[in-house]
Specification:
Two copies of one chain form a homodimer. The first copy, chain A, is α+β, with helices and mostly antiparallel strands and about 160 residues long. Helices cover about 15% and strands about 35% of the residues of chain A. Chain A contains three helices and nine strands. In chain A, the strands form two sheets. In chain A, strands 2-3-1-4-5 form a five-stranded antiparallel β-sheet, with helices on one face. The first copy, chain A, has a four-stranded antiparallel β-sheet with strand order 6-7-8-9. The first copy, chain A, is elongated, with a radius of gyration of 17 Å. Chain A starts with 15 loop residues before the first strand and ends with a helix. Residues about 1-5 of chain A have low confidence and may be disordered. The interface between A and B is medium-sized, with 35 and 35 residues. Strand 2 (about 45-50) of chain A pairs antiparallel with strand 2 (about 45-50) of chain B.
């Protein structure tokens, strides 16, 4: 029998941002929301579906050498409302916050209404108001269409920029 | 000054597959090619842009509890021709191989020709022949269109299933 190994799957980082407690299986969507493809050159570590005391299973993302802004952090709330964000300097947590859902969501979710102006060839950026947080419901600024949670999820997974 | 920390960013795994020496910044495309989204429940660890003696920088993917098949491994050759695959059991490497470019590529790359039957609503799966390995060039089975490396790359990043 093998000895038990430590469960830490991703090492500590010196400087940067740790996004912890992402709902299991959603780390790649978090990266997409942050616009991280890997080709930016930052060292990024991801662990998916790892055991968690709080959540059962969770995902973690660590971005070295980059501190996320408040605005970037809040975008993550869409897909990972229980995520915690730690800003690290010299291996220490210097700032810690929970994500907070913004009132207006721009450029992340796409309107489900095919006739909406944001789905035409016009250069109009999608924009939604949060009308309910739990379950999450969004209202399109342009056509008024209400997006239910499954629609939002589908749009996030779909991978529009 | 902080002491130097170990550079191992992702821990050893007990059982599964380690894909090492992926060209830097391409780990997420490798996951996409393998059809891994994170929602399958496997524990997956990813490290991007980490220092490498051989490649300068590289990406690594570790999939716990899943041994990739030869066919799956070969698909990776498209984006990571220098990748090495280690199959792990009880923390030991039991099989090690390099990726090998298949002669026929199915369902990964999409034909750039808008008039190609694979881009119609027909249920026809894209299929290409490898006509050159370096630089990679593919020929569409259906319309004969030659796909150059930038076209192939764009198609892989685009994220078609």
């Amino acid at each position: 029998m093998s000895p038990e190994r430590p469960t830490l799957r991703v090492a500590k980082i010196r400087e940067g941002t740790v996004i912890d407690h992402i709902s299991a299986g959603n780390a790649l969507v978090v990266l997409r929301i942050l616009g991280i493809t890997g080709r930016e050159g930052f060292i990024v570590s991801v662990a998916m579906n790892v055991p968690s005391k709080k959540l059962g299973r969770k995902d973690i993302v660590k971005i070295e050498g980059r501190e996320l802004s408040r605005e970037e952090v809040d975008k993550i709330a869409l897909i990972a409302p229980r995520a915690t964000i730690n800003i690290i300097r010299d291996y220490k947590v210097v700032r810690k916050h929970r994500v907070r859902l913004p009132k207006v969501i721009k450029n992340i979710v796409r309107c489900i209404n095919p006739a909406c102006i944001t789905n035409e060839r016009e250069p109009v950026e999608p924009k939604f108001y949060v009308v309910s947080e739990e379950p999450l419901r969004l209202k399109c600024h342009y056509c008024g269409r209400i997006m239910e949670w499954p629609d939002i999820l589908a749009s996030l997974y779909e991978g529009s920029s």
